Amino acid sequence: MADRVTHAETRYVWLVAGAVMLLAAAPFVLAALWPSPALQFCGFLIGVEDGNSYLAKMLQGAQGQWTVQLVYSTEAQCGGFFFLVYVLLGKVARLSGVSQVVILHVARLLAIPWALYSFYRLAAFFTPRPAVRRLALVLFAFTGGFGWLWVMFGLPAQLGDMPVDLWVPDASFFLSALTFPHLLLKQGLLFWFILGTLRFLAGGRLVDALLAAFAGLGCSLIHPYTLPIIGVPLGVYALWQGRHGWKALCTSCARLMLVTLLSVPYLLYAGWFFRTNPVFAEWQRQSPVPSPALHLYLIGFGIPLVLAILGLVLRDAQLRVHPFLWIWAIALPPLLYLPVPGQRRFLDGYQALIALLAARGLYLLCYRAVQPAALPTRPAGPAQARHGALCLPVLLAVAALSSLFLLVGATFTATGQAEPVYRPAWEMAALGFLVEDSTHPAVLSAYATGNLLPAYASLRTFLGHGAETVDFSTKEQAVHDFFTQDTPDRWRRDLLARYGIDYVYHGPREKALGHFDPRGVPYLELVYDREDVQLYRVMLGPIPGNIVK
Question: How many structural domains does the chain have?
Answer without folding.
Answer: 2
